[in-house]
Amino acid sequence: MSFPKGFLWGGAVAANQCEGAYLEDGKGLSVPDMLLGGDVNTPRTFLPVTDPNAFYPSHEAIDFYHHYKEDIALFAEMGWNVFRLSINWGRIYPNGDDAEPNEAGLAFYDSVFDECKKHNIEPLVTICHYEIPWAIVTKYGGFSNRAVIDLFVKYCETIFRRYKDKVKYWLTFNEINIACMGEGGIGNLYGLGIMEEEDINATEPIKLSDLKSNRQRTFEALHNEFVASAKAVILGHEINPDFMIGNMICHITVYPLTPDPKDVLACTVEDNMKNNLCGDVQVRGAYPIWAKKYLAEKGVDTSYMTEEDAEILKKGTVDFYTFSYYMSNCVTTHANAETTQGNMSHGGKNPYLKASDWGWQIDPDGLEYTLEFLADRYPGVPLMVVENGFGAFDKVEEDGSIHDDYRISYFKSHIESMKKACENGVPLIGYTTWGPIDLVSAGTGQYAKRYGFIYVDRHDDGTGDFSRSRKDSFFWYKKVCESNGEVL
Ligand code: BG6
Questions:
Q1: Is any ligand 1 atom within 6 A of the Cβ of residue 175?
Q2: Of 60, 115, 175, 220, which one is the catalytic site residue?
């Protein structure tokens, strides 16, 4: 068998993109609850006060909050043994700094995990998937404030103790490197919970691409997240030594656009800053040797890194490395090269690759390349692909069927690539596809950008009855899971 016995097969979602029920049972507002929808040509906007006339997709999302039993049964029907989901921090601590946790929120996830157990599905829990409580943004300035490290650790302690016998696999921050992806404020807001004062107080919608940012603040906040993540790992292992606690990196694999050595060097810098900086800190427990110089060149004063922090980073290294992989980009120093965008980043267009309708360059070979690169960089560390998927427009036929062969072909080629990596000795332990059930897109806020094996009747104009149905890819992925990746 190419995939090892016990390989984890499943899918991944985030609370804010699927649960809905945004104020139910005591939940507080979190960052995504302030975001309106967009599309491939229209950036999402942020509207600071929830406007009763505006359509905020996360408020109802796909109503997983009330459909989770039906959804988990469908996942089980596909033969999954793992389900990646996030806990919405604002369900547990509605304001982020409440003295006591919200029992109704805790009880909801108890029921979700019990349902998983009933179907022999192992939960893989992301502790923070772009879901920083809104009050932490406005009152504390997000992770730029060191006090938020303790708020996060307190939240972790609550859920680690509560679910210590129900959840074994944890990820601290989704795509912790999102703040390194560009110079814009989107990573600051999604990943770090930071907004500049004038944006917070805006009265008109602001394009996410126009949010202001301050590099010094970004990298200080990222450092605070590293410390928070490491403290969570240390604490989690004290609470249950069997916990497997991982990081999560948005891996935008990059290639030099030309063999010009200047392109190769520029590509290395980009790879280091966007992908390796965060991975190295969380896996190796220290900043890489080049980090201080790179940051200094960007004008960042790193005197915020204390010796005490360095000790914590060293002790709190992760047990496994996980990442999202959707696409790759090119890097060049040559003027006038064609560019493209995708997954909250920009890069050079690769003439050898096709792209999705959203411009994300499809590169299955890049997944094998990435897995083998990571296995070399972090010897012996188990790897897991926790997001991979294809956002597309789906057509529902008159009889209700959905023939999404484009999605099957995307997955097939990526799984083949993982298979080769396993055969080459990469310690890959699992795979969760992104958006196994249609949900709200993080980047555009659309429903029309569908990722699922399961179709959800819900649309960008707010219509739809939330009913679920199986696409062709559902039956295909079922065979993949049941055959441990042998039947593709
Ligand atoms: C990842 C995020 O970057 O990409 C998910 O972790 C997101 O939250 C996914 O949904 C796909 O991106 P998008 O913009 O198509 O939803």
A1: yes
A2: 175
Specify if 2 maps to a domain: no
Residue 430 near residue 82 (C-beta atoms within 8 A): yes
Taking CA atoms only, the protein residue closest to ligand 1 atom 2 is 442
What CATH number corresponds to the domain at position 18?
3.20.20.80
Radius of gyration of the chain measured on its C-alpha atoms: 21
pLDDT digits (tens, 9 = 90+) for 45-65: 998 777 888 899 999 999 999
Cβ–Cβ < 8 Å for 409, 477: no
Does the annotation count 197 as an active-site position? no
State the residue range of the domain holding 86.
8-482
Using the predicted structure, report yes or no on whether residue 227 has a pLDDT greater than 80. Answer: yes
Q: Is 327 exposed, middle or buried (CB count within 10 Å of its CB: 0-12, 13-18, 19+)?
A: buried
User: Does 144 map to a domain?
Assistant: yes
Does 285 map to a domain? yes
* Ligand 1 in reach of 14 Cβ (< 6 A): yes
Residue whose pair of structure tokens reads 């897995």 in the numeric block: 371
Q: Is 88 in the pocket of ligand 1 (CB under 6 A)?
A: no
| C-alpha 441 – ligand 1 centre gap (Å) | 6
Alpha-carbon span 183 to 353, nearest angstrom: 26
Q: How far is the CA of 17 from the centre of ligand 1 (A)?
A: 9
For residue 153, pLDDT over 80 is answered with: yes
- Flag whether 1 is in a domain: no
Q: Is 322 in the pocket of ligand 1 (CB under 6 A)?
A: no
Report the number of distinct structural domains present in the chain.
1
Q: What is the mean pLDDT of residues 106-121?
A: 98
Mean pLDDT of 75-90: 98
Q: Tokens representing 199? A: 């944006």
pLDDT by residue (tens digit) across 294-352? 999 999 999 999 999 999 999 999 999 999 999 999 999 999 899 888 877 788 999 99
Ligand 1 atom nearest 389 alpha carbon: 11
Whether 70 is a known active-site residue: answer no
pLDDT of residue 48: 76
